[in-house]
Model the fold of this input.
Amino acid sequence: MYAQQILGSLFGTIEYKLALAASIMVLSVIVAYLVDLVFKKVLLHFTSKTRFEIDDLVIHAVKRPIYYTVILMGAFLALSIVGGAESYLWIFNDILLTILALVWIFTLISLNKILFDNVFPSLVKKTETKIDDEMLPLLKGLSDIVIGLVGIGLILESVWGLNVVPLFASAGIVGIAIAFAAKDAISQFFGGLSIYYDKPFKNGDRIEIADGQLGIVEEVGIRSTRILDFYNNMIIIPNSIIANNKVINYTSPQPKMMVKITIGVAYGSDVAKVKRVLLDIAKGIDLVLDYPEPSVRFDNHGDFSLDFALILWVKYPSEKFSVINEVNTLIDSEFGKEGIDIPFPTYTILKDQ
Done:
């Protein structure tokens, strides 16, 4: 009994606690050094022989945080021994835990940067649009913010015992106000997302927007889409307009395109002859496809002409105007040779005597 009292009084002294705390700190530094040595001499040596760079980057990113974690945990344990749970020194324990949490918050942000700088770019290069390339910096920034906010929230809630719900609620109100002020930019952003995921067109497609804008898609961005019209003008259209309007894609699902040419001939013309001449003209043009076959329809008895429609197909939409030009040129010459008249507009005026 006497010996137990002596041991209790000895081990319960502040000197013993300080010595034990110092020993723990020394031991934690030694362990941290050994862990750092393992990373440098073993893990980095192993990853340097692989053909991937990302494993080296990950090892470098977590090497120092693990080193600091071992030391901070040793300091936390040493401080607990010296001060005890009920001591005023509890605040230093919370400070140590906060520092430890901040170390790993920044480590996660570093790992996030490795992903966005070394993994995701190689994936988005396989796509045809540039919208995902433009989204990467934005998504990286958003993910960094989420990591930071979640980490800080956990520190305030778990370490310091603060209720973070009102804080995040206030931040939500501020976010709503900012979103309302930037609603046009947000609308264009989500329009870009809908274009990216829905893929109604791609670069090089010939499209027409509901407002009449017609051209070739040059670039799909996160806020706008650029199309080159037939006058070689670059038209920049906000993605919100494209997302909320009808879009005609002349290139998809197949690039071939139907061309309809309307021609009127004089009353009294031989209908069969007109059809034959028009078909011969269409079949003699190299850019006109053999299948589907060209066809001619007798569409209408007009006010001063018999109206025919020549239907033919071209392989690419860009060939449409060249074919129309060639067809109209040949119609003018062949109709003249065949004696088929193209009438002028004529009106008969009846006058009472």
Summary: The chain has three domains: 2-169, 193-249, 257-338. Strands lie at 206-209, 214-220, 224-228, 234-238, 247-249, 257-265, 295-301, 306-314.
